[in-house]
Specification:
- Keywords: Signal.
- With about 160 residues, the chain is an all-alpha fold.
- The protein has one domain (about 5-155).
- It has helices at about 5-20, 25-30, 35-40, 45-55, 60-70, 75-85, 90-100, 105-110, 120-135, 145-155.
Length: about 160
């Protein structure tokens, strides 16, 4: 019975934590040099960030693009890339845009199954879903990156790999 108040408190505080981690505000903080969210995030903050990025929301994808170069080789970098891998399912074109240009995020680390030790079925399901989402992208300016991402995801060579 003692756990009930604690569980209730946690359940009620989760939406407040998510609301306090607004990606637009976080981007502004990072641009002002306030990097606490990527230097010393709590596990709960990391979960909100990963879920936000995985949603494919344009604001969260922009946060990923701004935050990732500041993370170095930290676990936060891995969480950002994992979120981007999952975002392929919801906003493949948005993710592909982040894999292009001078400040491109690492294609080989995004176009993979982000699960840690998935079963063969889970891995195949993710790769099939991600490949289907990527094939839905028809924009000519994203075609080469889409094909390279598909190649990384499926293990089949791309016609013209931009990397």
């Amino acid at each position: 019975m003692r756990r009930t108040p604690l569980l209730l408190l946690l359940a009620l505080s989760a939406p407040a934590l998510a609301a306090s981690l607004d990606p637009v505000r976080l981007i502004a903080d990072l641009k002002q040099g306030k990097t606490a969210i990527i230097d010393q995030p709590t596990p709960a903050q990391i979960a909100v960030i990963r879920t936000g990025i995985a949603s494919g929301s344009a604001d969260w994808l922009t946060f990923a693009a701004v935050a990732h170069p500041l993370t170095g080789n930290s676990s936060v970098a891995e969480d950002i890339l994992s979120g981007l891998s999952r975002a392929i399912l919801r906003n493949p074109a948005g993710v592909l845009r982040l894999l292009q240009g001078d400040r491109a995020l690492p294609l080989a680390m995004v176009c993979i199954d982000p699960a840690i030790e998935p079963s063969a079925t889970e891995d195949r399901r993710f790769r099939d879903s991600a490949a289907r989402a990527l094939r839905s992208v028809k924009a000519p300016n994203l075609a080469a990156t889409r094909d390279a991402c598909l190649a990384a995801l499926t293990g089949k060579p791309a016609p013209d790999n931009p990397r």
